[in-house]
Design brief:
Helix content is 0%, strand content 54%. The chain is mainly β.
Length: 124
Amino acid sequence: QVQLVESGGGSVQAGGSLRLACASSGYTSSLNSLGWFRQVAGKEREGVAVIYTANGGAYYADSVKGRFTISQDNAKNTVYLQMNSLKPEDTAMYYCAAGRWVGYPPSQYSFDYWGQGTQVTVSS
């Protein structure tokens, strides 16, 4: 079993920055895809960024390219999402997810484990 715990959400003004963290525990050695999704009430969950640990590659949604950066600290079993130049449309619940061979672009249905979510609110 794998547990994912997110932290770092909050409220910020447009143009500001936040860094989300996702700490993983349990049987994580079999997982090679770690990522972040976001969801607004009434809308489908959207893939934001995914890191593919097998080759070090990454996926970013077009809406966040150049503003968000996903990274991993293996020693801490933690994945980060650095979010800069935040916009009101980035407001959502952000979820950490982990899986194996989730594809490119990644599908939420390919991820096996999910965190509880952390709220990000960006005001104009």
